[in-house]
Design a protein that fits this description.
The protein has a single domain, classed as HIT family, subunit A. About 20% of the residues lie in helices and about 20% in strands. A five-stranded antiparallel beta sheet has the order 1-2-3-5-4, with helices on one face. The radius of gyration is 14 Å and the shape is globular.
Amino acid sequence: MTDCLFCKIAAHDIPADVVFEDDAVIAFNDIAPQAPVHILIIPKAHIASANELDDGHAHIVGRLALRAQALAEERGIAEPGYRLIVNCNRQGGQTVYHLHMHLLGGRQLGGLG
């Protein structure tokens, strides 16, 4: 998708502070971090939101989650704890319509239950 910000980052058309990349996933530091560690993990293929997922996407969702786990380990936040967030559509807080997972940690985060 040519007008998608995250597609442009995945294609290296827009610079980002990339912390991981492989053939299907790219992860980069958020430009407006909400915690000491705030990394966005995205599929390189354009998927607009969680509502677009189907059984064929199970592997990519798994890769996003496993990469988040590995990044949390690398950043030393796995044991004390971290949060993974996937926002979906406007009322869910999604502002960039390209599926992405937020990895947040490095401080006490407010409880959600």
